[in-house]
């Protein structure tokens, strides 16, 4: 009786199921560690058609981000080019999207490379495969991982983004040992670390952009009443909150403006307009939790998790630990991008009388 085929973690069925020649029989049930890696003789002889990235549902937004940002800026305030600061911000966010693309590509290519390993080379890789199993045991805190016989479980290529983490964990230890390592960035706890790296990177770019804009306004509009009000509060409070600074300068996006900004971009973004403000606030709270509380959520975060469905707010508590999904980090990047361009457009409009001049007012 033939065993079910071992599917790759990727969500594209063309990659999840490597085709085999009709004339060949199904490979035997693996009994040794080396047998987990399919020999190259099971691959088709003809060159396969290129497949999209296995996590294409997660990253189709990546090549669109730059175009979306340019279009959003033009829609908000036509006739103006983006300032140097907003261009630097766009370049900064491009780096984190490239990082994610790299991670997703590794998930796609590693199983394809593993399937091409010649049978006679497998003994040479025993130690590397064993090393991967030992690392997976530490990642998932499963000391017995790899001790049970394989019991392949297919991957659903149509698994929703927010359920991808659960989908991967259900298959840990059942498929090729490389499955557990390659898919670690897409499930807890490594997935949470990856998501927070992306959120931190995007937020740092946003923070730098805001400071640059504020500094430029202070320089160009030193005698403006709004600047005087800002300087007065800064003298009273050393670390004035960013939102208050933007409010005093009349360039801070309101919740309604952020919601409308996301809505204007429609299906080009994944985050829903009604969750835009919550996503932005949660990103700030998450950064504080991981930077100063060892990842422990405060009451605000706990309430946000309990009061919002995981299908829309892709953060949850898993065994008392915060799980931040890659899908949520994607939403954060989208919201931060929209918010930054709103600030840029409002700055151009609020200080238009001096923005086209060369000297301070």
Describe the secondary structure blueprint for this structure.
Layout: H1 13-16, H2 56-59, H3 65-76, H4 84-114, H5 126-140, H6 164-169, H7 177-182, H8 190-220, H9 225-236, H10 242-248, H11 255-265, H12 276-292, H13 299-307, E1 315-318, E2 321-324, H14 326-350, H15 352-355
Antiparallel strand pairs: 1-2
Helix pairs in contact: 3-14, 4-8, 4-14, 8-12, 8-14, 11-14, 12-14
Could you please describe the fold and organization of this structure?
- The protein is an all-alpha fold and 361 residues long.
- It is built from 15 helices and two strands.
- The chain has helices at 13-16, 56-59, 65-76, 84-114, 126-140, 164-169, 177-182, 190-220, 225-236, 242-248, 255-265, 276-292, 299-307, 326-350, 352-355; strands at residues 315-318, 321-324.
- The chain has a two-stranded antiparallel ribbon.
- A hairpin with a 2-residue loop joins β1 and β2 (321-324).
- α4 runs antiparallel to α8 (190-220) and α12 packs across α14.
- Residues 1-64 and 72-82 have low confidence and may be disordered.
